[in-house]
Amino acid sequence: MSVFTPVTESELADWLRNYAIGRLENLQGISAGVQNSNFFVTTSLGRYVLTLFETMPRAELPFYLHLMAHLARHGLPVPAPVANRDNEYLGTLSGKPAVLVARLSGKSEMNPGAAHCRRIGAMMAGLHLAGVNFGRKQANPRNADWRRDCARRVRPHLSAYEQAELDAELVFQAGFDLNKLPQGVIHADLFRDNVLWDGEFVGGVIDFYFAGVDALLFDVAVTVNDWCADADGRLDPTLTSALLEGYAESRPFTAAERAAWPAMLRAAALRFWLSRLEDFHRPRAGEMVLVKDPGEYRRILGQRATDTALPALPA
Amino acid sequence: MSVFTPVTESELADWLRNYAIGRLENLQGISAGVQNSNFFVTTSLGRYVLTLFETMPRAELPFYLHLMAHLARHGLPVPAPVANRDNEYLGTLSGKPAVLVARLSGKSEMNPGAAHCRRIGAMMAGLHLAGVNFGRKQANPRNADWRRDCARRVRPHLSAYEQAELDAELVFQAGFDLNKLPQGVIHADLFRDNVLWDGEFVGGVIDFYFAGVDALLFDVAVTVNDWCADADGRLDPTLTSALLEGYAESRPFTAAERAAWPAMLRAAALRFWLSRLEDFHRPRAGEMVLVKDPGEYRRILGQRATDTALPALPA
C-alpha cells in the first residue's frame, strides 16, 4: 500500500554505513501513509523508521526535518531525524530523498476521553511554544490562499447546492483575516491518527509534512474539529473544554483569538472539505491517496456555521 | 543519598515556565549518583530527569551537554538534554547549574552474556563514529597526565608493596604513548551500571560526565575490564570476543591498536585503581562519594599485567 519504491536489505545495509547506528538487522515495509514509502528499520543499536519521499519537493524537506529536530531538542515526543556521519538529516536512497527517524512507541486512540483531550491541548501548546525560536520559515501549505485557489479548482465538480454553500463560506472567510492573530509554526494536521499514546502520555506526534507558519489558532481549530466532535460532527462540550484548557494552561488565548474562534473553526473545517474534494475529484497521478469522505467535513463545516452554542475559548 | 540541594515543587514549576514541556505533575529525588543531585520530573508532556551540578565547574558543562545532544541527534540512546525557550540547555536552579534530560527506559544488567557484550561493543563503536564530527574538544579528565599526577598524590598512602607495584606500572606506562592511536570523544566510564537495557536493546547509555577526547581504544579497554571480567578479574574469552567483534563490525581496529591492546588494558585498570585510591584516602569535602574497593582494580591490573593469554583484538 505505502511502499512505492522498494528498498533491498543489501542496499539499505550499504547506505547505513554512513550512519552511526550499527548494522542492519531487519527491514519491513509499512502499510500506512499515502504520500511516502515508509519502512521499519531495526539495527544492532535500535529501532528507526525510514521514509522515502515520493512526491514532495526536496527543497521543502529541510524545513520539516529541522522542525522535528528542533521540537525533539525541546523535549517533545516527535520523530527526531537521525543525522548521518556527514551531520546531514537528508540523504538519497533508491534515487529518492530519504530520512531515518527515531521510532516512537504507542498507538493511536480513536475514542479519546477528556484526559486525552487535555493532554493533546497541552502538547499542542508545547509544540507552539517550542516553535517560537525555530529559525526557518515556510508557509502553511494549506493556508487561506490555498483554500481560495483550491475552491476554484473543485467548484466545477460540485452540485449547485454545494456550490452555493462553498461560495457563502468563501465570502464569510474573505472578511476574516487570520494574519492579525498570533502566528507561529503549526502542525496543521494533528488528527487522532497522528498521535501515538504510551499509556496516559503522548508517546509521539507524527507526520509533520503539512506543518508551516500560520495563525496558532488554526492548529487549535483543526485539532478540536477532529478530537472533540461527536458522531454527528457536533462539538462535545466536555472534550472541547478539556482540550482548550489543557492548551491555555501553557499558552493563554488572547482576546483577538477568543473573538476569532467561531470563524476559525469554520476555516479549519473548510480546509479539510476542500482537500478531500480535491483528492476525490482530481486525484494526482503517482499518488495512492486514501480517499476520505469529503461529506464528513462538509457536515462539520455546516454544523460550525450554524451552532449557536459553540464552546468558547477559556478567558 | 544523592540529593544535596533540595528543590521544591513550586520552585520547579516556576522554572519550567521557561520550557515547552508542560506543567509539573510530579517531582521525586533519585538516590543514585554521587556527584550531582538528581530528580525524576513528570510533566503533562512526559518524563524527564533533572540534574543539579554540585561540584563540576560550570564552564565544563556545555561540552558534556552538547556531546549528549550530538549523539542523540545521531540516533543513539543517550539522555538528550532539553532546550529551554531561550534555546539553551544549561540553566540555573536553586543557585546551581541545572539541566533537564529525556528520561530513558530500561535497567542495568550486572550479569551480561555474550549477546549483551556484542551489543555494547556495537554501541561503543556507534558513539565513537558519531563523535567524529563533534566540534567541541575537552580532554579526558582521567587521561595519562591525570594518572601520573594522581599516582603522586595517593602514593604516600600505600604500603611499600603497593608502592612498588604502582611504580612499576608507571614505568611501564611511561613507555607507552596513547596519543599515537586513533583519537576521538570517548565515554570513558561505560560500566555496566551506566547502561540501561530495554529488552535485548540498549535503551540508554548514561553518565557522560567523564567523557573527553582520548585514544578510542582506552574506552574499549575500560569497558572490557568491567563487562568481560569473571569474579577473579580474569577476562572471559567468550564475552571479550563478543564485545570486540561487535565493536569491530562498525569500526575495525588498526594494527597499532592491536599492538597496544595489552598495555591499554593495564592503563584502563590503573585509572580506576588510582581514582578509587584517591576517593578512599583523600575524600573531597562536600562530595558524598560512594567509596568503591580500590583492591578490585589493583587485582585487575595485576591480572592484566601477568595474563599471558589475553584475548586479542580481532584482525
UniProtKB/TrEMBL annotation, chains A, B:
It catalyses: L-homoserine + ATP = O-phospho-L-homoserine + ADP + H(+). InterPro entries: Aminoglycoside_PTrfase, Homoserine_kinase_II, Kinase-like_dom_sf, Pseudomonas-type_ThrB. It comes from the Bacteria. The keyword Membrane does not apply. It holds the Pfam family APH. Its EC number is 2.7.1.39. SUPFAM superfamilies: Protein kinase-like (PK-like) (SSF56112). GO terms for molecular function: kinase activity. Residues 27-253 form the Aminoglycoside phosphotransferase domain. It is an enzyme of class 2 (transferase). Keywords: Amino-acid biosynthesis, ATP-binding, Kinase, Nucleotide-binding, Threonine biosynthesis, Transferase. Pathway: Amino-acid biosynthesis; L-threonine biosynthesis; L-threonine from L-aspartate: step 4/5. Belongs to the pseudomonas-type ThrB family. This is Homoserine kinase. It comes from Zoogloea oryzae. The gene is thrB.
